[in-house]
Amino acid sequence: MKLTAITIAKMLNGIVEGDDSVYINKLSKIESGVKNSLSFLGNPKYIDYLYSSNSSIIIVDKKLQLERSIKSTLIRVDNPNESFSKLLDHFGKSEVNLKGIDKNSHIDKSVSFHDDLFFGAFSVCKSKSKIGKNVKIYAQVYIGENVFVGDNTIIYPGVKLYPNSIIGKNCIIHSGTVIGSDGFGFNLDNEGRQIKVSHNGNVLIEDDVEIGSNCSIDKATLGSTILKKGVKLDNLIQVAHNVVIGENTVIASCVGIAGSTSIGKNCMIGGQAGIAGHLTIGDQVMIQAQAGVFKSIKSNSSVMGSPAIKYIDFNKAYVHFRNLPSIMKSVQKLLKNNKDA
């Protein structure tokens, strides 16, 4: 793909500073930019690369003040990160426009789908399922009975959708993710043996959800495990049975959420956090990385640590913990002085 500076500026509602006819045919990081590539400056700590980069075009903030001359043409925009994301999306869509059903795949005769479907090699779709418009299903995907996949959704290789799962529009599900497997539920019988609890519910994923690779989302015991509109999951995340995750909540890698916990909208959950079951997490809650959450959390809170406490309280406590060796020396000295007195 070949784009000129003036074309890109029109796409991003930006302003060209330099040669508006210079063109690019690829994207690159600002620190490793080469001729005919486009980079962006989204983080001020990379500003030195602005003056040394060989990128033909660099996207920068409209308010950026130059300290010395540069070689590159600039495109000034309101938000460089957002603008570069738009270009990434544009390049991705231009490179891939797959359609057709691979001869080595299998779609049951009862399945409903559209002519623009892409269905990759060795993928399977079982009976009574429905697939929307412009859906892309890559190789080795398994879709069970009575599954619904909404318009414009992309399912990458190796994804497994258990029966009765519902996937909304404009979703992205990355490789290795399993949706709709049984929850982790067992009861002890009178002889102390673990008896499996049947899970008869499903998983409901609303529109505009993205799920990273190798995630597990368990179906509900009864009812639905629900990921609401705009939820974004990183890789390697466990969502247990009957969990509900609110709109636009984002969750980083290696988080585990136990059964029947409800998480509000617009929350941010850091990597390796663990959340116990049957809790209510409010809206706009921030849970820091490696936090252990054992109690419900009110809306607009920020917590840290294990057990998780208020973020500001944890930082205060950490100061004392970090100084504990010197504090103990002082205590021991006081005890010794009292003993000698």
**Helix vs. strand class:** alpha/beta
State the CATH class of the largest domain: Mainly Beta
Envelope shape: flat
Helix percentage? 10-25%
Order of strands side by side in the largest beta sheet? 8-10-13-16-19-24-27-30-33-36-38-39
Percent of residues in beta strands: 25-35%
Mean pLDDT: 94
User: Per CATH, what is the topology of the largest domain?
Assistant: UDP N-Acetylglucosamine Acyltransferase, domain 1
The count of DSSP E runs of length 2 or more, i.e. the number of strands, is 39
User: Segments where pLDDT lies below 50 for 5+ residues?
Assistant: none
CATH 4th-level superfamily of the largest domain: Hexapeptide repeat proteins
What is the topology?
Elements: E1 3-4, H1 5-12, E2 15-17, E3 23-24, E4 26-27, E5 37-40, H2 47-52, E6 57-61, E7 73-77, H3 80-95, E8 100-101, E9 106-107, E10 118-119, E11 124-125, E12 130-131, E13 136-137, E14 142-143, E15 148-149, E16 154-155, E17 160-161, E18 166-167, E19 172-173, E20 178-181, E21 186-188, E22 194-196, E23 202-205, E24 210-211, E25 216-218, E26 224-227, E27 232-233, E28 238-239, E29 244-245, E30 250-251, E31 256-257, E32 262-263, E33 268-269, E34 274-275, E35 280-281, E36 286-287, E37 292-293, E38 302-304, E39 309-310, H4 311-322, H5 324-340
Parallel strand pairs: 4-5, 5-6, 6-7, 8-10, 9-11, 10-13, 11-14, 12-15, 13-16, 14-17, 15-18, 16-19, 17-20, 18-23, 19-24, 20-25, 23-26, 24-27, 25-28, 26-29, 27-30, 28-31, 29-32, 30-33, 31-34, 32-35, 33-36, 34-37, 36-38
Antiparallel strand pairs: 1-3, 2-7, 21-22, 38-39
